[in-house]
Amino acid sequence: MSRKIVDSNGEVKRQKLDTCGCFGFSPPWLRKLAIFPVYMLILCGNAVLQGMMVNGFISTSISSIERRFSLTSTKSGIFSATYDVAVAFVLFPLSWMATRVNKVRSIGQGMMLVGVGALMLCIPQFLEGQYQVGQLKFDHCDTNRTTLCDESQATNSLSFPLLILSQIFIGIGAAPLFTYGYSTIDEFDAHTRTGTNMAIFMGVSTVGPALAFIGGGQLLKIWGDIGKTNPSDLGISGPEDPRWYGAWWIGFAAAGLLSFFTALPLLMFPKKLNDTDERKKKDTIQTHASLNVDFSGEKWEQLKTFKLFLMNPTCMALIAMQTFESMIMNGYITFIPKVFENLFGLTSSWSSTVTGILVIPMGIIGSYIGGKAGEMVGNKVPKLFKMTMACVVMNAICACCLLLNCPEREVAGINVSYKDENPFGIDATCNSMCNCKNIFNPVCNKMNNVSYLSPCHAGCQAASDAILGNKWDSCGCAAERGIGNRVEKGWCGKDCGLLQYVFFGLFALMACFTFACAPLVQSAALRVVSFKHRDAFICFGWMWMRVLGSIPGAIAFGALIDTSCTQWIEGCDGSKKCVLYNARDLSHYIFYLTLCTKLCCFTALLIACKHYKPVPDCDDPTLKLEDMKFDDQFDPKNQQFEE
Q: SUPFAM superfamilies annotated for this entry (predicted)?
């Protein structure tokens, strides 16, 4: 396809247009669909699927993956972090190629890789043999017990390398979506609508993880070894059994297959959309004065551009703010279901469901508010900075909900003694001969609402319902408390009353303000650099955000949570895991971390605002974005398509 253009001398020339289509399919009518609303719809669909896999299914499935492939906590940590490492690894090449490739098609090719990685993640499930739990481990009092360890699960040597390789594919494939995706949204539509467009994109991006939290929690109730084994034959009573693992792989398989269909339309888009020129007629330049430099064609162009960012206080302050925000956000995404579970005594599946219920509406509402707020001020950079600072302050105020505490769960030997006159300690006279070391299967005495780490720690002789193993009678330690001698499976409930509703209400507001910040700060980041440096700045910022934010964020968050642990259990492989946390310390530590992070974000935004200096006459309506023209762009008023 070609078009006729008239140059400044009045001569008619023919210029070849970027075709629409792929794999030999490129009918003329297809170009009519190369408009921004269609592109935005397809891009958002890809963002939903990417979010489901990366920020949703991974978090909900990690426990089942550990059980199925006998992974230690260290290996599962490596598996989870590989995605961020892969993203960081390809950011520099993406920055270098931004002006050399069709960015829309690059996003589509990346989503194809995401689909391949998701399907590859399921392969180890079918390479493995039948799931084994070894000999049944009796957790009641047994004076003849010699070992507490089950027979080890035999695993395929290729399973862990395939899991790592799948994360590499997903990380490399997802990187263009949130680099080129941001820049093309700003590139194809008017700057005055950037905030709204970012709000739509970011709001839809939160739907994916939320759906995965809810759907993934339901999938985990399905037995993972479908067609291979029966859980009852292995002595596993149901999803509540610590040895149960759910059908984690179904979600990845479905999302991986769908990503091929959502990626295919992106492969058909041209480099320039039909309606771009019309949409960007009234755009003006707001570039920081010292960043209005063009290194095109110069040697070491990319390194000079990065040095330009590094020496600019506004750029680095913006990156610092986004890095701090990504650090705390990644920690919350990874651990917030666990936090809810320990603060309010919720089950794992219900904690994930509550997280999804909160994230979906707050993500959409917060992103919409942020986008509309930016649009109200015309996406002017100084005003964007100030509005973001206001959101950060409100976020910190709402974080005070973490100071609200439910009554601490009473656990014998941990925070209440076995006998009122004895000091704390899980080893007592009533269970001294039971060999309870490292057994964990919490039970509750409903008569006095006191929990025990296991039937063994409660001094129980045997399960009263031998088939399910959910109740135990003749529990000597429970009888010593003076009320009853029967215990039932599970922790005793926590009565938080109205307190938990106040907490979740304030937490929802905190999430809303967090999501409102995102389109505001992203819109400001796209304005302060020149058009030619936009992709480089996004990739440069993401390198900092991944290396110093997301990757260490979850690790630091997890380490802080571990400091509130009150009881550790050692596994057969020597690894330790926490089975009980001090809820008060847990909530307070997270509050202090959140407050410090928000203070750093506010300071960084204040520095960015004070050092921002726009180019002269940036508000002059005659100063348009002429330097933003593509080599192959056309004027819709003069275009003439011909075959």
A: MFS general substrate transporter
**Helix segments in 145-265, DSSP class H:** 159-174, 180-188, 194-219, 249-263
Contact present, 26 and 20 (Cβ < 8 Å): yes
pLDDT digits (tens, 9 = 90+) for 68-123: 777 765 677 678 778 888 888 888 888 888 778 888 999 999 999 999 999 999 99
Q: What is the pLDDT of residue 423?
A: 60
How many other β-carbons are positioned within 10 Å of the β-carbon of residue 105? 20
Spatial CA neighbour of 48 closest among 292, 271, 363: 363
Rg (CA), the chain: 28
Contact criterion met (CB below 8 Å) for 411 and 451: yes
Q: For residue 440, what are the contacts with CB-CB under 8 A and spacing of at least 6?
A: 242, 453, 454, 569, 579
Residue 243 has pLDDT above 80, yes or no: no
Taking alpha carbons only, the member of 230, 206, 220 closest to residue 250 is: 220
Sign of CA dihedral 185, 187, 191, 192: negative
Per-residue pLDDT of 313-366, as tens digits, reads: 888 999 999 999 988 887 787 778 778 888 887 776 677 778 878 877 888 888
Model confidence band, residue 6 (pLDDT cutoffs 50, 70, 90): very low
Short-list 527, 540, 481, CA closest to 187: 527
Angle between helices 180-188 and 499-528 (to 10 degrees): 70
Token pair, residue 197, equals: 């467009």
Phi, psi angles (nearest 5°) of residue 514:
-65, -45
List of E strands, 478-608: 487-489, 565-570, 576-581
What residue segments make up the domains of the chain, in order of their start? 28-406+497-628, 429-489
Q: Which of 459, 472, 463 is nearest to 427 (CA)?
A: 459
Distance spanning both ends of the chain, measured CA to CA? 5
β-sheet bridge partners, residue 581:
565
What confidence tens digit (pLDDT) does each residue in 516-572 have?
Answer: 988 888 888 877 777 777 778 888 888 888 888 877 877 777 778 888 888 887 765
Residue with tokens 């959309």: 273
Determine contact, residues 257/115, Cβ cutoff 8 Å.
yes
Domain 28-406+497-628 homologous superfamily, CATH: MFS general substrate transporter like domains (1.20.1250.20)
Whether residue 205 is predicted with pLDDT greater than 60 in this model: the reply is yes
**Residue 303 in this model has a pLDDT that exceeds 60:** yes
Query: How much is the pLDDT for 420?
Result: 53
DSSP 412: B
Question: CA 506, CA 500: separation in Å to the nearest integer?
Answer: 10
